Amino acid sequence: MRSLKSFALAATAAMAVSASPALAADPVFTALPTNPNGWIVTVKGNAQIGTSYPGSDKMDFVAFPSFSFRRAGTPVRYSAPDDGVSFAFVEQSGLTLGVVGRYEGGRYLSSDRRLFGLNKIDWAVEPGLFVEYWPVEFLRARAEIRYGINGYEGFVGDIGLDVVQRYGAFIVSVGPRVALGGNSFTRTYFGVTPYEAFLNGQVTAYRPSGGITSVGATTGLTYDWSSQWSTTAFVTYKRLVGDAGDSPIVKRFGSENQFGLGMTVSYSFDSGL
């Protein structure tokens, strides 16, 4: 765990150094050929290392594909590494509104034997809405509100602010994050019923309430190889707070400090539609 924290801090420092104007370049890329009435599709391959479940002190590796699309002729909309998968239906004067979705992994005994007696939590999908606003060219504010389905049922939300700056082929971003969860979310992932406490024997009964669940930051570094290919590396940090941070599951088996890091490779092409 200590080595992962050291790696995360080192990666963050490397990203900060990369923002130096000395590294600035100004390559000229050939514009992506498009049908002016068609759609541009971006396919992504994602690889991440993150906590096994909310509040865990164990790390897991996961790899998955994702995609997005936009109207041909419209500029590429900046997306932070920890944004949910989203599609905008209103874009005007720096204001963007749209739909968003995320995936939340489950919590299983196979991932941590110390969870014996605690209820299994299935994976969840979280559809919802997002709004973002650029008050100035280099600053983005974004908020998401989503509703969990399957593993839990209830509302969660994220609020973030990003300073975004391009240096030639590089794009550097960094900003704070605040996460919120309703009663259902916090009680599912951080609560302990009396029966669970009896079976487990190492934690006490606990009934948390909703509110702010974590505060933290995300930093990312993107390199545009061409108009079609790009690579993004990122580091995330969350500090569990409030009732989530006080959970006996976190105190006994996990950690308030939640680190993550990963890389995304993106390829964009004209769909021909």
Fold and architecture overview:
A hairpin with a 3-residue loop joins β6 and β7. An 11-stranded antiparallel sheet has the order 2-1-11-10-9-8-7-6-5-4-3. The chain has helices at residues 2-18, 183-190, 194-200, 242-245, 248-253, and strands spanning 39-51, 59-71, 85-92, 95-104, 124-136, 139-150, 154-167, 170-181, 211-224, 229-240, 257-270. The radius of gyration is 20 Å and the shape is elongated. It has a single domain (2-270), classed as Outer membrane phospholipase (ompla), Chain C (Beta Barrel), CATH 2.40.230. The protein is 15% helix and 49% strand. It is an alpha+beta fold and 273 residues long.
Comma- or semicolon-separated keywords:
273 residues, alpha+beta, Outer membrane phospholipase (ompla), Chain C, eleven-stranded antiparallel β-sheet, 5 helices, elongated, disordered N terminus
Strand content: over 45%
- Provide the CATH architecture: Beta Barrel
What is the number of helical segments per DSSP (H or I, 4+ residues)? 5
State the major sheet: 11 strands, antiparallel
Mean pLDDT reading: 86
SSE arrangement, N to C: HEEEEEEEEHHEEHHE
Radius of gyration: 20 Å
The chain-level structural class is alpha+beta
Unreliable sequence segments: 1-34
User: The CATH topology is what?
Assistant: Outer membrane phospholipase (ompla), Chain C
Number of E-type strands? 11
* Strand order in space, largest sheet: 2-1-11-10-9-8-7-6-5-4-3
Shape designation: elongated
Terminal CA distance reads 48 Å
What is the helix fraction of residues, given as a range?
Answer: 10-25%
Number of domains: 1
CATH class: Mainly Beta
